[in-house]
Specification:
Length: about 260
């Protein structure tokens, strides 16, 4: 069903209402990795549509828990357990980024708690920000089918919202609205699972490359003490698509628009 949606990068119209660049954090000033100017040259090891088979553990755990079971762990994995690198939505918040940064504590443990709150309150934005951070760090570009899946999810969420509003004025539409709402929840969980599986495999692959995959910040390759708001230069190391050395199998256990909570 997602094939009916476009597989092109985000257009300027789709980016309206949010900054087209990373607003804060270590990649401040970089173009949005999903926009026309932010596309990298490397491909993910797997497309999102391949996650259910290639990383079934992460996929199903994310689906069953509606992303709450893996979201925070994925952010920690991508940040390599260094919570000093955490920013709300990793600088890609659709609004109020400066205000959010001002209330984020400097202590790493406090930032870890903020990440937990972000994953609970805005699970879709949280997992999408984790993926975007990974894309910038390693110069990755999404598979065309990734954009289709994400756009399809967004369309279903909008349809569910419209049906909910219509049902407020016409009680006869309540059953149909409930049906669409349920479908929207399932679609979001599946999309989040695909995204989580893709993130997990990509990060483990990059870490398997050893020190060569570390970001370059000048003479000291591992020095992360950059000035606030300064965007360090990173080197993309991901191969152009899967190679003969496939990533290790996922452990048995260890988002974009998310459905709004509704009282049952």
């Amino acid at each position: 069903m997602a094939c009916c949606c476009s597989d092109e990068p985000l257009t300027e119209e789709e980016q309206q209402g949010s900054d087209t660049k990373v607003q804060s954090g270590e990649f401040a000033g970089r173009p949005n990795p999903l926009g026309p100017d932010g596309q990298g040259e490397n491909k993910f090891q797997i497309a999102m549509k391949e996650a259910p088979c290639e990383n079934y553990g992460c996929f199903y755990l994310t689906c069953i828990t509606c992303s709450y079971g893996t979201n925070w762990c994925l952010r920690r994995q991508v940040l390599e357990k260094d919570w000093s690198r955490y920013y709300c939505c990793q600088g890609l918040s659709p609004c109020c980024q400066e205000q959010l940064d001002n209330v984020t504590p400097a202590d790493p443990n406090g930032r870890a708690c903020c990440a937990w709150c972000e994953c609970c309150v805005c699970p879709g934005l949280a997992i999408a920000a984790t993926r975007s951070h990974l894309m910038i760090e390693y110069g990755l570009t999404p598979d065309p089918s990734d954009n289709q899946i994400i756009r399809f999810n967004n369309c279903i969420q909008m349809l569910a919202c419209i049906c909910e509003i219509c049902a407020m004025f016409n009680p006869d539409l309540r059953e149909a609205a409930d049906c669409i709402h349920c479908i929207a929840q399932i679609v979001f969980c599946c999309m989040a699972g695909c995204m989580a599986g893709q993130i997990d495999i990509e990060k483990r692959y990059q870490q398997s490359l050893g020190p060569a995959s570390a970001p370059l910040l000048g003479p000291e390759a591992h020095d992360r003490d950059t000035a606030p708001g300064q965007a360090p230069e990173y080197r993309a190391v991901a191969h152009d698509g899967p190679t003969d050395s496939t990533p290790p199998p996922p452990p048995p256990c260890l988002l974009y628009t998310s459905p709004s909570p509704r009282d049952s």
